[in-house]
Amino acid sequence: MTAWLFKVFLLCLLNVAVALLLAPLCEGLMRKLRAAIHSRIGPPITQPYWDLLKLLGKEDLRSTRGSVYAAMPALTLGSALLLSALIPLAGMRAPLAFAGDLIVVLYVATISGVLIMLVGFASASPYASIGSSREMMMLLSVEPILAVALTVGAFKAKTLTLGGIINWQVQNGPSISMAIGGVAFFLALQAVAGKLPFDIAEADQEIMGGSLVEQSGPRLALFRWAMWVKQLVLALLLVQVFFPWPHFGIPPVDLVTTAVKVLLVLILVAVIDVVNPRLRIDQAMGYFMRVGVSSLAALAFAVIGK
Amino acid sequence: MTTAVRNIEASIVILIAGSLVSLLFARWRKLCGWVSFAIVCASSVCTGLAVVRTFAAASDERTILSLPQLGSRLSLRIDPLSAIFLAIVAVIALLSALYSVRYMEHYAHDSVAKFFPILLLCIASMTGVLVCTDFLFFLIFWESMTLTSYFLVTFETENAASQRAGLKYFIITHGATLCMVAAALLVWRTSGSFAFDAIRQSLSALLVAQPLLAHTIIFLFFLGFATKAGVLPMGDWLPDAHPVAPSGMSAILSGALVKLGIYGLLRVFCSFVVAPASLKGWGIVLALAGTGSLFVGTLTALRQTDTKRLMAFHTIGQIGYICLGLGVGTYCLGTHPALATIALAGTILHAINHACFKSCLFLGAGSVLYRTGNRDMDQLGGLAHSMPFTTGTTAIASLSIAGVPPLNGFASKWLIIAACLLTGMRFPLFLLLGLIALFISLATLASFLKVLASVFLGKADESRAVEEVPISMIVPQVTLAALCVLLGIFPQLVLRFVGRAIEGVTAMPLTGVGAPGMWSGLQIIDGSAVGFWSPIAILAALAVLALLSYAIQRAGGAQSRSVPVWYCGEEHTPSTVRYPASSLYLPFKHAFQGIYPSGRIPVPRFPASLRRALDFDRWLYTPSVKAIDRTADRVSRTHVGIPQIYLLWIVIGAIVVTGILLWLRT
Question: Alpha helices, DSSP H only, in B25-115?
Fold first, then answer.
């Protein structure tokens, strides 16, 4: 029992460490790429690390008192990291696979967003309230798409575990329904990561960062970090569930291929981010409504066995 | 020797006798409250003993009154299913009674004689409904429950809205009761008995011999119970009636009373109907009704700005989840026993969990109303610092109803959604319903974030000083919130009893849900283990990771300082720049406008001729009074006050009398 717990703990630690330490690097890469498309030199790839380091030492200005409010950043980053322990890094089994299936993953994926919204409402700034309201609407329009896409996998593999779905994918190869599901998941990822044209909730030029307008210093650092972790982990989920090939069965090799695929996904996200202007919230909602309805086609294909 | 049934009898007798006692004390408001609370305490202890005894030993049956001519007898029996609902009623009644002691001060102009005695009778009839094994007496208890709750809903006699809502409640629920009476009589005509066992036998015989009649009977039962449970469109009474009742009663209505509709549906569909083919059809009907009401109810709730009305719409939504689970369970009952048990476990667990969080939410809204006198979210705000307990408990209950893990709402939603998805792998319609349920749980979250944001968070206006509610109102809220957390982290605690209940009703052991150990939590088993949820492991991981994050946050040793909110350099007061509840999610609300059709029913005019015929004042009393008056007036004109004239009258009178006498002689 203790040995088993220890093993689970070590595997969790690996997942968490990878997510925590590589998330800023991915963000740095995406910034560099954006600069390249803008024909700028841009910041060094390590810039997000320096940003975090600087913020951790800055003065922490709080507009609201209270211990729950004070604990919010740690809980937010903690729940984003928890998500990383629920998703397999390489191979089939996540460290906490015994503790949560895909429904749990879907619910846990919303926790960090919910906490950020609550912080926005609690900070008493009207800009933060508007940001939180928009964030909630984006979540409402995007989350069903993630759910539909993962359900296609569950339907195919006849199981609710992520490991089972990945296993089925590796065994059976690509299928039309999973491809459509993957595309829908990718389109939703753009909004979950808060990138253009869907950075409506932050919209720096209109509402000055939305929910986080009153955050500063280490609190802001943790919220930023949580968002980067979430973006990386959801890209990992996309790659693992919908595009797990080629699968070699040797963990280090799989780790490398997964990392490459995740980077490709994030680069694509960054490119879309650069070449698009921001949409209005109602336009974005209409867009995702259409994506959501189209993604039901994946379900239909799955039902007829494609 | 005391048995479970004896305990329940004692509980009902205590409540009925207690209602008279509390009536005696009605003149002293606070004392009456405490006396009633003591009575509910005693009865809840008896009910609790009965529940414990039911799970410890096999249930017994006791006949109190027998009416062989009617084929009916008043006999009481407690099986595990009724024991679970009895536990819900006992706990919610106890906490609401404690809460109401101080809360009723809010209604200074209405006598508590209209509240506490009737509340006790209402609890007694709810208890009675759950232990009856005979439909005639079931209906008697059911009707007394409906009537007493009607009087509690219309408690504020001066308030036109509450009277109107009460009338709507009265009419709709009596329509439902009529359906149930019709169903019971139709069964009685064939079997000659009102007993549940006889109904089961004759219904299964009818399903073979006269399917049309049998399905009509089932449909009538469905209408009757679903109306009480608040399944749309029959549950239209609920969003009007729940908000206008005093908050303690709202908590009982939403937490316990609507659950009895679910109890009835469980009885009808899981134990009365036995043919697998007809179960499938009814399973789909139930699941569609449930999905419809969770979709429409929750999205309508999102538009509300009155706290209690919003919560009432969420009751419709959550009952929709329960009904969806029941539908999936009914669908699978004949063919996939493991899946059926998953869905039914989710159904009963969600009924228990809903009792905890929804009662807590109504009590929280009541506390805000008690201190601020306001239910309008647009005018409230920033109560978090002045009412920390109410804020904390409402926040826990809000996250719980939205299904944020690891609180209790998640465990049951997880079971229901997993059952939907797994059944969907055999019959894809359920896949769609499961996805809608997932989406709506997010809409629930949006709606309760709105409540938290606009009532509790943000900055308060300095002008209004608000303090926390008294301790006797805090205790029930904290207890319910603690239950939300406890049942969320240890769902196994309740699941064992839920399994017994399912086995008692359907005669199938709980094969679909396994609880292998503390760390591994719950497993969904469909052939092999296909779903996992371990609250302890998730919570432990979250705690460790949050501590790690906190260490990172403190690593730089940054100082913190309190600053005012930054309004881009302008000076504002919090109230002028507050983002009101009605503005939140506006584009989303526009997208789902008109989802809840509302039409005014034209009130039929009272026929004028009948009104005139019934108006005795007009054609009988007033004319006769006037005639008498006029006559008296004329008579009085002869009294002119001159003695000579009076003498003249006397002389004339004497002559006339003499003349008459003479004439008579001849």
Answer: 29-56, 80-103
